[in-house]
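Moderator note: this is an archived Q&A kept for reference. The question asked for a predicted structure of one protein chain; the sequence and the answer are reproduced below.
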Amino acid sequence: MAQIIRDRVFGSFGGSRRHSKIPIPIPRPEPEPGPERVMPVYPVEDLPNPFGELGPDLSDSDLRETVYEILVGACRSSGPKPLTYTTQSEKADRSSLSSLQRSLTSSAKGALGLKQTASSKRLGSSKRSGSVFELIRVQMRVSEQTETRIRRALLRVAAGQLGRKIECMVLPLELLQHFRSLDFGNQQEYEAWQRRNLKVLEVGLLLYPHMPLDRKETAPQQLRKIIRGALEKPMETGKNTETMQVLRSVVMSLACRSFDGTVSDTCHWADGFPLNLRLYQKLLESCFDLNEETSIIEEIDEVLEVMKKTWVVLGINQILHNLCFAWVLFHRYVTTGQVDNDLLIASNNLLEEVQQDANATKDPAYLKIVSSTLNAILGWTEKRLLAYRDVFNPGNIEVMQNIVSLGVLSAKVLVEDISHENRRKKKEVDVARYRVDSYVRSSMRTAFAQKLEKVGSNKRLSKSQKNHILTLSVLANEVSELAFSEKEVYGPVLKRWHPFATGVAMAMLHSCYGDELKQFVDGISELTPETVQVLRAADKLEKDLVQIAVEDLVDSEDGGKSIIQEMPPYEAEAVTAELAKDWIRTRVDRLKEWVDRNLQQEVWNPQANKERLAPSAIEVLRIIDETLEAFFMLPIPMHPGLIPELKTGLDRCLQYYVSKAKTGCGTQITFIPSMPALTRCSAGSKFHGVFKKKERSHINQRRKAQVGSTNGDSLFGIPQLCVRINTLQLIRTELGAFEKRIFAHLGNLESTQKGDFANGMSKMFELSASSCVEGICQLCEATAYKVVFHELSHVLWDGLYNVDASSCRIEPFLQELEQFLEIISSTVHDRVRTRVITDVMKASFDGFLLVLLAGGPSRSFIQRDSDIIEEDFKFLTDLFWSGGDGLPADLIEKLSTTVKDILPLYHTDTDSLIEQFKRVTLENYGSSGKSHLPLPPTSDKWNSNDPNTLLRVLCHRNDETAAKFLKKTYNLPKKL
């Protein structure tokens, strides 16, 4: 690399042309290198000169030769022996140790913060002879022949103008007059030298004069004409030639102008901006070692002391020197591949001097040049700092620190010291913090965009939604790694200028990922494992970013609120919860639609399966079970919190199913026939026997027809009702299984998810559970009363004790009832079978009493029929007892209490019944008159002390006493 640099230096000194000849292909550093990475070397680049361009007529070599002539002239006129100027160290023994030590401890290098280099040892050991001036000549690549020629000419000038200072003469003019073509190797060399000096006069007096030209003056036009002619044809430059005399007159008139209108003794021909700075820049560039392009020569103190002698000619002072030298150091760092960090440090130290200078002076010309120079430096630094992760890494992080310092210092000078008006008008701004803030935000945006592109999602809408989902998950992990590297590598560097730089970086990354996440969330409509994966990744990323930001902001005045406010929560959990709720609602809605559709097709066929269950119910329960399994398989962190909503939705679906399952099946009231109006019996009818025969024939025909229809395919037949009962019982049982399954899943969850939710789980599926209980109760009663009052109406209501008690006994009813009991026993699930049979028994008892007490005028009993009635009731209870294989005896006894309470009334004689009725009626209702008893209303429950029950027994008593009493008391008819 050193050889490449040396070759590049010796090739040409001309800026970018020199570097463009040998480009070095250096790969761009990765944004995130490993700790083992070494300092990168960057492609060589050049910068536009902030001092301004002089045009193509003056090359870098022209400027260099001109300023060297000025340096020699300044030294020649500054003392008795200026052309053999030597330093104090050279007056002593150059090989001594003290000389080497002085060289190694350069005060200028110390002030600039530059390290001593190996060149000091090289210089000390080589015992370089000659003066510092000789060193400058070599550094500026001026040949000995050229120097000899210049010194000879200056001797001629001095001979003619003894004691005249260099600032009181126009050096190019003097050299033109005293140089001859014989002083050069050939005519072409002389003409080229002449043209250069004429161009210098043109630039210094016409293009960039110290004092603006007066348009009324003729001297500028004369000078232009002379120079134009000389450029076309070399001019005669002898001392007494007319052309030379005219040239001297014009040049001196322009060079000796002053702002107060007087003729100045000082000649101003090389002190106008930017010529003076460009000349001085070339002078300062000689401070770099020719063999080591990035190293300052060890004799820098002596060299700078010599260079100061040119200030009087160039119009340079200390503040311009500081500015120009800062730029030269910075420019050398940039144009040598950015390999020597010491140059940045030195430039930065000089910029601190520039800051003080800019704050102390109000010279607009100076401030303009400062502004141009610092803008150039700031532009270069910000080009790197606005995407610093692309340029810096753990291997060169120290360089970043120096570049940030350089950029921030430049910005501070530009804002605080140059923009005085802005400073007066606006509140004080923390420039460093503001700039670093912009660097961090820009770099984070750039780094995020690179990560986004890296994972394959640089387009706003991915063609594949699944690929887009996977991209966001991977992106979250990438951004998290980015955040931690920012915290560990870059944050500590930037904290010097912005105490919360890491917090700002986290806020920026949070915002960038949040924009992508919002677009994703707006586009999703259902919860999928991939969706949850993205939301969980986003939630983890947000926690990482917030945690890093909070740690960085712990010492902030406002507790970091201003930056935390830039991080509105992703609410990934809330989005997940809402999507999960949508998922639940979708599943529940689909289930309800399924229930509606399948219930319309359900026929409740007991032959559909061996369990005698509705296929629709089996499918509903299967769907619910699958829904629960799918719910707990969702990779979400809030299962317990969503269970109430899920179970409520499923509960309502089951309740809806139960409600539909029992709809249209009827109730107890549906099947009990309405009671006919009260009538009195007609005692001793002679057509009694004939009527009984016809009635029996009619009853038998109806019985055959009814039995044939009991096993029909009606949706509400007894077998179908039994299937409905079984189905509701299955649902009721499965509710408990569902609860156990839910608790089991909750037990498998992480402890952070469980919480105290189990305390509120006791009332799961409350609606459907109670609905099942009510539905089973309703269906059992409906089945029982339908059997007794609908299916067996022909043998009970139309047959039992009809016309004649002795000939219309209970056996037909019992036979057909037994058939239905067999159907029920073989169809109904054993857990509800007893309940159904019990309801059938209760319905049979109610039917038996209804025949006795409200059977209409065709039922008439005499006192001796009581034995038949009691015996028939005994047959009825025995059917349900079935010799101990049926219902429990105590249950039968309990439900037969009402019947057994009323049956003794049929043993009682009529007069006793009448007296008992009168007494009970008067006790309960009073009397509306001495000879008139009130008609008791129909009671809800029969019993032997109920006036209405007693009245009905009398209405069905077939004797004259009862008939007369009813005729006299209530005028009841014999027929309806």
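Archived answer notes: The mean pLDDT is 82.
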